[in-house]
């Protein structure tokens, strides 16, 4: 409740109003419509706010993530808003450069590395 009422401390919220405000997917805007319509709304956010990514919660599971993958992602790919493929390499290599796929000493986690039988 604190997260909700902090934005408007003078308002007295009813249980119904809170449920309507956070009832689908948590606190945040809810997009509903065809893949074209949802992609239009996402692009509008990108253009108005300069964000470059989204966290997408679900309202129905299983189902929502499949719908997003099957219907929305292809539309976003077509518009150049979603990658079709990732560059080769591990995240660590992408962050720190080629040849840095694994932790190096003196990082303490290196002692837990599995070594192949000799």
Structure write-up:
The chain is an all-alpha fold. It has helices at 2-6, 15-22, 35-49, 64-78, 91-96. α3 packs across α4 (64-78). It starts with a helix and ends in a 22-residue tail after the last helix.
In short:
42% of the residues lie in helices and 0% in strands. It is mainly alpha-helical and 118 residues long. It is extended and about 60 Å long.
Number of strands: 0
Main β sheet profile:
none
Q: Give the termini separation.
A: 58 Å
| Structure classification | mainly alpha
SSE pattern:
HHHHH
Specify the overall morphology.
Answer: extended
Rg over alpha carbons: 21 Å
Question: Could you list the spans in which at least 5 consecutive residues all have pLDDT below 50?
Answer: none
The percentage of residues in β strands lies in under 5%
Mean pLDDT: 84
């Amino acid at each position: 409740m604190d997260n909700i009422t902090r934005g408007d401390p003078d308002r007295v919220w009813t249980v119904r109003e809170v449920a309507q405000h956070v009832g689908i997917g948590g606190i945040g805007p809810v997009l509903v419509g065809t893949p074209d319509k949802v992609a239009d709304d996402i692009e509008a956010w990108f253009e108005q706010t300069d964000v470059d990514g989204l966290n997408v919660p679900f309202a129905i599971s299983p189902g929502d993530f499949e719908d997003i993958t099957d219907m929305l992602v292809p539309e976003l790919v077509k518009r150049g808003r979603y990658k079709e493929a990732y560059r080769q390499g591990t995240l660590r290599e992408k962050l720190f450069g080629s040849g840095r796929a694994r932790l190096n000493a003196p990082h303490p986690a290196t002692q837990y590395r599995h070594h192949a039988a000799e």
